[in-house]
């Protein structure tokens, strides 16, 4: 084991959870869905396979839910 001290920064084990406002979370979900829709439309147009659009929307929703919202 190393003798490095544990940082006092934003550690997930501290128990202090940085709460994200519902507006910021909602904005992040919307941004993800829009990005996924654009990606789906572009892939659908390039491949002429329309099922890329719902796949892009699902991908955008997943990414928007996982990504850390921007700092306010």
TrEMBL record:
Entry keyword annotation includes Transmembrane: yes
Region (Disordered): 1-24
Alphabetic keyword roster: Membrane, Transmembrane, Transmembrane helix
Residues spanning the membrane: 29-53
Protein origin, superkingdom: Bacteria
Basic and acidic residues: bias regions: 10-19
Protein name: HPP family protein
Annotated source species: Leucobacter coleopterorum
